[in-house]
Amino acid sequence: MHPLTNEIGKFIPSDRIRVTRYDPLVRTPFFRSVQVPDEIRNLEPFTIIQAASADEISKVLKLANIRKLPVYVRQGMGVISPDVTRPEPPGSLILDLSKMHWINPNFDRHHVEVGPAVSEWDLNKALHPEGYGYPELIGPVTWCGSLVSLNSSGRSVDPYIGKPRNYVLGMEVVLPTGEIVETGSESLRRVCGFDLGQLVIGGQCMFGVITNLRLQLLKSPKDICGALVHFDSLASLGKAVSSIYKNHAPYPQVLEILNRSYLEAMEFEGKISEAVLMMATDGWAPGEAQWKQEQLIKHMQSEGCIDVEIQSSEDWAKLLLFREAGLSKLSPKGLVMLTGEVMDYPIDKLSIVLPAMRKLQLELMETYPGIDTYIIGHIGAGSFHPTVVAPVEWGYRKLHEVVKDCRKKILAFKLEHGATIGEQGIFPEHIGWYQGTYDDVHWKSMQLVKGALDPNGILNPIRYSHMQEANALP
User: Fold this and answer.
1) Which end of the chain is more exposed for a tag (fewer CB within 10 A), N or C?
2) How far apart (Å, rounded) are the C-alpha atoms in residues 55 and 132?
3) Burial class for 2, CB neighbours closer than 10 Å (0-12, 13-18, 19+)
4) Within 10 Å of residue 185's Cβ, how many Cβ atoms?
């Protein structure tokens, strides 16, 4: 039993407090089949508190500060990999925000207030009848609190769609010391100057817990037009994507890359080429989406694409499901995804870094026979994911060591070619990139801000641990 359990039980009902076995992996669909050795799982169990309000979170954090005991909140997890243990060590006290689910639109003020546990799908389903909706970012089941805590734009094209930060008018936040603060405003004009909320956005729950979001309403597009664009090489695809911006072509809403190895492994039923773009355009006026699509197709053809397949609305919906659920095919094959690293590049480098990364992936496959590698991702923003999968039968310890080495080599590639990270967060899984890209002033400044808002190191302290500390096996 956690030392704070009895005291927390005075203001949170016992049916919302539970103890569960320790697990070093966040059990996503990717890792449910990976068996963790008992000597690891038999470490001190987690105590999970299901909080229902900002006030309850405040009381837990104030109590934790008095007793100098850490509290963990999984809001803005970032990339998940077997070599990055979950951000809660054995014996942790974990706050579960799943009960904080509400959607309160205010159409007169053109905003909607949502709880942190509202998913993208739930929010769009509620707003669709009124003609509002948000671009799909990471995926339909991702919580809004996590999206904003990561500030992740996912598959949508950043220069066109922006990031969650662009939609946030204000928030309710519980600071690490337990104070509840309101940020932003209720007007459509965002705060000028310093806004504490802007620090929390993208802060991965190091500087505060998001307990309510006020989002500007966005009108849903009237039409979406989809297409598959085929290329004979990763280099030619990269050149075509980068030239979209140089040649002032219309912005796509979605521009996803799928390479041959991914399409074959996921048993894609359509035409397969060396590199394929999933491309969608949207529009609010009649014919706008189709006009954008036609202009982009002309551009792709001038840049050397080898085929274009126009998709009906039904086929495009199926493609999105394929892209979203494709990796679910790994488990029946006895495979598990080890990592899907984040690589964000200046767009004029894409024609160079895509084939170079594929070369590195093939070298990794020679080093570790049995793994497979793919390139997928949100190439419209210069982003892609070099993905590594391996047999589940290898077991936790071998998977841990293999992916640790793969990520080390991919990190060296990132630093050599000047990659940034604009999607899945930084800490603790990308500390190596952060410290290798920025100077010590950045790192020390971040620690100073964390120390000012969290003087006792209560909230998610492992987030800013060193990589080797965060990834040490028990």
Assistant:
1) N
2) 31
3) buried
4) 15
Average pLDDT over residues 271-288: 96
Nearest CA-CA partner of 423 in 324, 328, 341, 351:
341
User: Contact, 449 vs 207, CB < 8 A?
Assistant: yes
315-370 residue pLDDT tens? 999 998 898 887 788 888 999 999 888 889 999 999 999 999 999 999 999 999 99
User: Both 407 and 282 in a single domain?
Assistant: yes
Q: Which conformational region is residue 9 in: left (phi greater than 0), alpha (psi within -120 to 50 degrees), or beta?
A: alpha
Separation of alpha carbons 437 and 212, rounded Å: 33
d(CA 163, CA 168): 10
Please give the pLDDT value at position 135: 82
Give the end of a domain, one of 216, 245, 279: 216
- Dihedrals phi, psi of 340, to nearest 5 degrees: -130, 75
Pair 185, 110 in one domain:
yes
The answer to pTM > 0.85 is yes
Residue 334 DSSP code: T
Question: Containing domain of residue 27, as a range?
Answer: 5-98+449-470
3-state secondary structure 400-450: HHHHHHHHHHHHHHHHHHCCECCCCCCCCCCHHHHHHHCCHHHHHHHHHHH
Is the pLDDT at 444 greater than 90, yes or no? no
